[in-house]
Amino acid sequence: MRIQKNPAPGTLANCYESLDKVPVDPVTKKKIETEEMTEAQFAAWLAAQPQPPEPPGPVPTNLPAWRIRAVLRKRGLLTSVKSLLWHSCSADVRAVAEEQINDSKFEREHPLIEQLGAALKLTSKDLDDIFREADALV
Fold it and tell me: To which H or E segment does residue 49 belong?
């Protein structure tokens, strides 16, 4: 078994049955550099490779409000959210926000979530992470 040496960062090394099965690099016009390994050596090498991180799960679309409040409190953001709503928003926005905060659920796609996130310098990814973290609470 021949294993590709020095694959590009973030890619997997290719495995070939024999030297005659190793392809030619289109840039260098030479066979891709490989090394001979037994299956046991390959298994050990493979086990030593860093594993890519698990992709994040889907973002929940709506969650019980207590979960979001718990995560905001844990991250030290709950007071900032309330302060922002009551001191920096118009009466109309404040009324909608008050309903949202006191409602039984938070909807990720509600426009107010993005507005508050932007005001707190949170990215869309940050907000998604808050929803994922809240979803994981027991």
Answer: none
Strand ranges (E), the chain: 2-4, 15-16, 34-36, 62-64, 105-107
Q: Compute the distance between CA of residue 20 and CA of residue 11 in angstroms, rounded to an integer.
A: 23
Contact 117, 124 (CB under 8 A): yes
Inter-CA distances, 111 with 61, 91, 93, 106, Å:
13, 16, 11, 11
Cα gap 7→56, rounded to integer Å: 26
Instruction: State which amino acid sits at residue 104.
Output: S
Stretches in the chain below the pLDDT threshold 50: none
The answer to whether the beta carbons of residues 75 and 81 sit under 8 Å apart is no
pLDDT, tens only, 109-123? 988 888 889 989 999
Give CA–CA dist 33/62, Å, rounded.
51
Q: How far apart are CA 37 and CA 1, in angstroms?
A: 6
Closest CA to 11 of 50, 68, 64: 50
